[in-house]
Amino acid sequence: MRLHTSLKVAAAVAATALLASACSSGGSGDGDGDSTPSAHTTPTDPAQKVDLTYWTWAPGMDEVVKAWNTEHPNIHVTVNKQDGGDPAVTKLLTAIKAGSGAPDVMQAEYQKIPTLVAADALADITGDVSADLKSKFDGGSWQSVTLGGDTVYAIPQDAGPMEFYYRADIFEKYGLKVPTTWDEYAQVATELHQKDPKAYLGTFSANDAGWFTGLTQQAGASWWGIDGDAWSVAIDSDATQKVASYWGKLVQQGVIDNKPMYTPAWNKGLNDGTQVGWVSAIWAPGVLEGNAASTKGKWKMAKLPQWNAGDDVTGNWGGSATAVTSQSKNKAYATEFAEWLNTSPEAAKLLVTESGLYPAALESQKSALSDPPAFFSNQTDFYTLASQIAGTVSPFTYGPNVNVAYSSYNDEFGKATKAKTEQAFGDAVTAMQKTTLDDLKKSGYNVKE
Questions:
Q1: Per the count of CB atoms within 10 A, which of 257, 344, 353, 380 is most buried?
Q2: DSSP states of 407-434 as a string?
Q3: Is 397 exposed, middle or buried (0-12, 13-18, 19+ CB in 10 A)?
Q4: Using CA atoms, how far apart are residues 264 and 270, in angstroms rounded to an integer?
């Protein structure tokens, strides 16, 4: 049976439930029995002990959870390491359908949350979180865990605000200006390539759908929407087409590379100075250090170029949240742990030092991060600037078939980068729209054209 069952998704209008016309996938509601205590409590009986299981793929999480277990001896959390991405989702959905085997708490990528909500795999924890929890996160991260409504399905854990990275030494060599708008980015890309035909300010990668999604998010796109009891798809929006046309034109002109990221050729460019810039996210220093260690101290980070001068907005590339599953028998305790994990100063420092995550909580970004990454020791204000950028993430709603949209991106933009025409890039977006919309209908969701 398909997993498109009762969708406990809050719409723009509070308390509106989404329903899909398909068979039930099983699951056990919100898992909140009458005996479950309210949030932020501990068992009053010293002999009583609550055991929680936490599925996560983040490194070093054992050390983070050890601090919780020390402080909360009666609420013990056991870390169970999982593969990230689709394998983790598939494993959870299998457990939910079977009615057993699901953890109490799970790390979930933002784009996977609608799929898990649609399958009744996540608990509604709205009544168990602190009243001021929303104020601790940027609007984009919060929308990702509430799907644009009032129901809280998870607590943001780490964020991936997008930024622009560039070789400061090469910029200085050629007298290039750090672009603050996308028009300026195109001008600098052209100027750089004219001065060194082997050098590019960046590349358009046809195998990184999350990258492209984040760029459209910055432009104001939101690929899915919820209207009453129906999903809508707006991939083929003016905002997305604007982004596709922009990059398609640069590729067509030959002033931007169109090789995929994370390939030997791309890594070589990072090392030899022919890849002079990278539109990336907050986690980029780790990638640069791993792939181009000899260029340490030569890079700098800046805000993402804006579509209009004076704007201050970015998108997300990556990030995850902590969710309580619908099968947890201790929802309130699980929520208490999830909130501690993602908002307490102690956990924030451990998430940074042990897990290498960039906290989604705005205060944690300031308190847990001060010194710049070692690779960016030449930019002392790295995390101060990063925190400012993280607070400007534009809201974006994911849908229940992100995997289909992302797969279509790989297929359609793979063709477009071979064609190297602006028109082909626009056509790729249109094809993605049709594929994603058709899949929603075929899967039995109520869809608004």
A1: 257
A2: HHHHHHHHHHHHHT-HHHHHHHHHHHHH
A3: buried
A4: 10
What does the pLDDT look like over 235-259, one tens digit per residue?
999 999 999 999 999 999 999 999 8
User: Please, are residues 338 and 145 in contact by the beta-carbon 8 Å criterion?
Assistant: no
pLDDT computed for residue 226 by the predictor: 86
CB-CB contact of 266 with 275 (8 Å): yes
CB 138 within 8 A of CB 159: yes
Name residues of the chain where pLDDT drops below 70.
Answer: 1-47
Tokens of 171: 């910029």
Spatial separation of the C-alpha atoms in residues 135 and 7, rounded to whole Å = 26
Structural domains of the chain sorted by starting position, each given as residue range(s) with its CATH number in brackets: 50-160+318-390 (3.40.190.10), 161-315+397-442 (3.40.190.10)
Spatial CA neighbour of 81 closest among 94, 100, 65: 65
Distance CA 165, CA 37 (A): 48
Which residues share a beta bridge with 355? Answer: none
Determine the pLDDT at residue 42. Answer: 54
Determine contact, residues 56/106, Cβ cutoff 8 Å. Answer: yes
Side-chain-facing half-sphere of 12: CA atoms under 13 Å: 11
175: CB partners within 8 A, 6+ apart? none
CB contact at 8 A, 260 and 205? yes
Residue appearing with tokens 């910029």: 171
Contact by Cβ (8 Å): 190, 315: no
Residue with tokens 């534009």: 394
SS3 content of the chain, % helix, strand, coil (to 5): 45, 15, 40
What is the token pair recorded at 265? 């050729």
Q: Are 112 and 404 in contact (CB under 8 A)?
A: no
Rounded to an integer, what distance in angstroms lies between the CA atom of residue 124 and that of residue 9? Answer: 9
pTM listed for this prediction:
0.88
Written as six digits, the tokens of 410 are: 């790989």
> Strands 277-281, 230-233: parallel, antiparallel or unpaired by DSSP?
unpaired
Residue 179 half-sphere exposure toward CB, CA atoms < 13 A? 28
Structure tokens given for 384: 């101060």
With both helix axes pointing from N to C terminus, report the angle between 402-419 and 422-442 in degrees, rounded to the nearest 10.
160
Q: How many Cα neighbours within 13 Å face the side chain of 404?
A: 22
**Within 10 A of 193 (CB to CB), how many other CB atoms are there?**
20
Instruction: Report the C-alpha gap between 206 and 417 in whole angstroms.
Output: 7
Which residue in this structure is represented by tokens 């780790």? 286
In one-letter notation, the amino acid at residue 234 is A
Strands 154-167, 316-324: parallel, antiparallel or unpaired by DSSP? antiparallel
